[in-house]
Fold each of these.
Amino acid sequence: SNHVVDRLSLEFKDEFENESSLAFSALANFDFQEEEMTKLDLGFNYDFYPKEDVNVQLGYTRKMSKVGNGRKDTDVFLSRVTFNVPYQPSLETEIVVDDGTYFGLSAQKPIHILDGRDYGRTITAGAELGYNVHAYRKEAGFSHFETSLKVPLTMPRGFLSKFNGDVNVRYSVPLADDIKEHWIVELNLSKRL
């Protein structure tokens, strides 16, 4: 069903001299339809460059989700390798403890529009092909093909001008009978402290 979820996230990130970084994060979902917090994720990830054009992320997330009247806790280990070449291909692996493994093959392309110092914008178009081995679903196999478009926002004057913003629109096509087609529209605001 269609409804609005407010997602609040907080990240503490430390960058090191060798272009690596360590980040600790917390993310909480507040579901307006259910009028309560339905999810809390706590995690960390380490990001580094073993070679000049290769970025590696390794991480762990503890996902705590409301399920019925109870709670389900899930441990997820993440690895992602991204190549700094045209279309920035990336291979992601999520190992969901006691559940399965998810693989994602993705690419993205920055598109420069309205070139100019005051009016220039870069939108990012992306795509991801998902393959599940019993992670997040009972079956194994290709699960979905997702396309995305990320558009930066110009913040109005005043309080909001201190924030960076973007809109991310994602559309997912199911590749299996147990996966549903869906749209996700995200409005993201961030501020560096």
Amino acid sequence: PHAVNVALHGAAAALVFLVSACVAGFMNFAATDTSSSAVANFRAREIVKSVGSRSWLITDGGADGLLLIAAKDLGHPLRVLNIREDGNETYMRYVASLFDKPRLKNLSHVGMAPLLHEWFRSDPEIDRKVAMLTMPDFFKAGGATVVPYKLVFLGEKNVEAVDPGELLRINREFWKEMLPTLRQARRQGPAAG
């Protein structure tokens, strides 16, 4: 009889645990649903593809981790600068380590805006090195025109080389492919992206 009671108690405890696990799974589905991750990962990959051959991306920090993972997955060496980390002394020391020129290293300790302004002004190939998700006006400091390209802004110093019709075609084609994914995410609700 004692062995039977132990076995019944053990079975009851296992059943309670199993029911609790199932109920918890249903109750927390929205918090653990990863379908929104697919949209965010897709967007990150598309941003990295939009960068083209450029090796720097200026961001607002919203998806830097995903962007770096996507760049690694795509085999694209990419340095990401988060413009919002301007007041973070540790981050700005890291930023200083990314530059060889003493002036740029020093300006990184002054702030992100002075650093970017000087870098864009002094680097004759800035339009071939950098893409931006935010604050594309820095390209003007380098004498480049801001060109919206898919999900990023590019700089172009030779504006005559930009074919507006071709640029419009590329952007329209891109958004024609991208919009169904975004609409699907929107239908899935706020957790989807």
Amino acid sequence: ERGQDDKAWPAAIRAKELAPMSDEVRVVLGTLALKEGQTANAKIYFEKAVLLNEYNIAALLGLADIASRENDFEKAEKGYKRVLETAPQQPEVLNLLGLVAQAKGVQDEACSLFYQAIRQAPARAPFYYNLAFSLKLDNKPVEALESFEKALALQPDIKEAYNEMGLICQSLGKLEQARVYWSKALEIDGDYV
């Protein structure tokens, strides 16, 4: 189960061969491996956890997240959908599926998923931000601006939202408003470019 760089792991974790592991323990080890940058090890732990319990949401999410990080969007999408089949009330997973659709360039699907996530968890600023970005990519600037505003109402320090709003206003020929948004981004982070 371990890779070459296993020497860095604490002895207690390396000694895991002494007893059989539950799927929950494998998920914990997979999560630790991921935090240590050991993606291959993490994938093995998550896969074995799923073999022990095909409904282990944390393991399924871990595998889907790894696939997404590796730009294997088809596999990520399949994994996130499997999680939703097991536990449908997962706004975070809907948001992640929206990000996968966004990366694949399917903005109408991304927007639909972000709207679903927002309906389940309306107080999450990142959901509105992600929706706004897809709306912008889908050439819907007015709707994008409205969604960025909602994100900022929930979390006023999203400098990227101000920057995107400035870019939208610039594309609409509203240069003065664009400068206002860019100034707000710089108020949050003076080094933001």
Amino acid sequence: CGPVQYILSNAPQYSWTEAEACMMDLKIGVITPHENAPEKYGHFADNTGCRLIFRQGHTGKARALALEMQNQMGVDAIITSGIPTAMLEGALSVPIFPIYPGNFDVFLACHEAKKIGTRIGFTEIPVFTMHYDVGRIVSILDAEVRQYTFETLESIPDTVRRVAKDGCDVLVTPGGLSYEIAGELGLRAILI
């Protein structure tokens, strides 16, 4: 019961055993900016009695999607990917479990970006991505990687516009909103 194992290992305050959780017929909401997530990850709940409900959205839409999943769909928990949980705190009564990309994910995305161009822009929110070792990743890639940070959600559009203005060939980002804005600007982007 993959998603349930993830939830149980990250929620010690719940006293469910894995077997009990699988027998509960859990509905687990998944909010992610990745458009192919249901095809890629939907099978993780096969044969478990768990149901994964996917919704595509970025940081700006996450709160509304989470409330819809909780209030209208009756999910038992929500897993978020690439969405800061601070956006959802206090709004939901169901448990929230974030999944953040790791260094290997960043490396793979930057490696993929290098196929598009050698001037790579990398955006991050330091409080959520401070564990990335971008310096080491850059040294392995042999590409120009410019780091851009935004301190607030409101600064994301201006930051992405600056990446495009600075002549980057491609943007690598862990956030769906910056990915979406890059697309609107005609800047190729890779979502970690």
